[in-house]
Write the structure tokens for this entry.
Amino acid sequence: MQESLSKVGLLPEPSRWAMRWSRFQRRYAPYIFISPFFILFLIFGLYPSLFSLYMSFQTWTPSDGWGRWKFVGFENYAFTLTDPMFWRSVWNTVWLGVFSGVPQHLIAIPMAFVIHMVLSRFKTFVTAVYFLPYITSSVAIALIFNTLFATHNGVINLTIAHLNTWPLLGVLLPDQNINWFTSANIKYALAVVVVWQFTGWNILLYLSAIQAIPKDLYEAAEVDGAGRWQQFRYITLPLLRPMMFFAVSLTIIGNMQLFEQPFVLLNGGASAATPGGQTVTMYMYRTAFEWLEMGTAASIAWILFVFIGILTYLNHLVFGRAARGGD
Amino acid sequence: MKRILTLLALLAFFGLGLAQKTTLTVAVFPNLDDALKAQITLFNKKFPNVEVKLVIQQYADHHNALTTALATGQGLPDVAAIEVGFVGRFAEGQGFEDLNKAPYNAGQYKRLFTPYTIAQATSADGRFIAMPTDIGPGTFFYRLDILQKAGVDPRNMLTWPGYIAAGRRIKSTTGAFLIADAADVAWINIFATTPANNSPYFDEKGNVVVDSPRFVRAFELARNIRVAGLDARIGAWTNEWYDAFKKGTVATQFSGAWLQGHLQNWMAPETKGLWRVQQLPEGMYASWGGSFYGIPTASRNKTLAWEFIKYVTTTEEAQIAAFKAIGAFPALLAAQNDPSFSEPIEFLGGQQARLLWRDAARRVKPLKANKYDRIAYEIITAALSQVLDEGKDIPSALAEAKRLIERRMR
């Protein structure tokens, strides 16, 4: 249209430069607008991943300087897969994955149902409160939990000591203050922190899924004489399956990569070397930055990647059919 | 006219050039930066045209940043402070200048320093990568008031069995714990019994020796303390640790001499006059901490960096300035003869503790760095925690530790 108007002299003839510019814009503007994501992804996402894959076949002490690595083939993988310290960290991670992952969902699903059914008027406020730990900075979390778990004056041990004076409970509880930062106990402390931090996030996910369930299903059930429990059991739970797949996937991926919580908790109350607190990522970090074995650390990263892939696939087998809508 | 203008322009250019200061960047962690600030003022009297720029990061961040910078060769300072826990690792890498070589020829200065520091900064193949600036002679802190209340003579604590016996008495009469963490006793024993010019974990041939009798005894002593309930099971550098010092719930602590400064300044200033120090039991001498300065190979100002390092480490005035600023115990032997060393320390009830520490510093045996020290340290820490916290038996814990260390040596 514009071209034809200018041809008949109604519009001034655009200069050649302007023509070119406009053609350039029309062709490349979309790419330019979308490029920031790709540039950032290439620099901070793809490049480090590929570099770590490359590095996992080399041996490199980073303090030697850039480029001073040596090809060793699969040696790093062979070493890691036969490393008792690595397998201990896998065991710690799986333990934590189960004991900090399962409670999150067992608490979040009923909570979301209760919030939806009973507290719907205060829904926003209640979810916001439960969500708060999720957005709290890990430094603040470390500070608070290090104080709570302190051996001699920590609130948790003081509570246990108080409960110990009760007639029946006293038999079950230890008489001595528990040192939560020993290798054997740190896992429990970590599980508590993780559950506390991520349950709110799952409540939010499940609440949004529950809200999407049509009201008339509940109304029909009520007409048929179903109580709250039956409604939860036969309507809410089955219809939540797609969300469960999603939420459990996120938990698995998150728990396999658990780093922040052990990092801050171990650096505050115990030695970072405490064996019980070594998750795979923690062990990887220490291999890279404490022992300066970059190649071995990179191989740990890729082995972990395969583990996560397998677990996500298993999860897909369990919840997946429902997630795709079939049954 | 034009020629004059050109001349003026050239003059102005060179004039500016002459007046322009050279900048030297020094990366450092607290509170070593406070020592440097005092030293830089003095340094600038000799080198007025050098502007020293400090890059200050927390202890762990500083060393992590240094590792990353060495890896990429980017963003390295001209001079880097290195804590003793990292100096061995950096020595084994290729990122720092070998100060033995020309133009540094640091060999001539080595005899000026507390002897064991030289070994700490020397790699297995003999490169010397950093000059020592301060040291941490190990010492035995005790609370005189608690010991008196329990009727314990501190001199009876100078053998390990005597130390533990005194601990039982302190616990039963005053309720105070003997020590914050039993593991400390194991570590002193491991370090102080290492033969000269060896690594604590390896013999001269590089064989792992963590199942030798000195490790067994170190572990046994710690376990005896734990089993008798004499340690508070508190880790160092936690709020509970500071709290225990404030409230006097632990009676003794083994540490570097520098702990006195921390206790006095912020940990437990209200316990002034209650603490005393003595040498470690059984004639043991060990070093706790220490700092060094090295020149990264990628530094662009090596000549000046060397002048700066020489100034802060080998001149008495700079070493005394650091000592006065933060109590950093000078690595330079000559600076240890300063009159201020015989001054009584009020926090320690007027004890002339620095003379004691100086004596200790001169008796510490030089240890040799091994590339795998760091990993061995961690594996032994884990083994110790299995013995103390989980009741694992000592020979099998040490045998497993040995196996783990050996398979790491690739």
In short: Chain B touches chain A at residues 64, 67-68, 70-73, 89-90, 92-95, 232-235, 238-240, 243-244, 249, 297-298, 374-375, 378, 381-382, 385-386, 389-390, 404, 407, 410 (CB under 8 Å). The first helix of chain B runs from residue 2 to 19. The two ends of chain B are 74 Å apart (CA to CA).
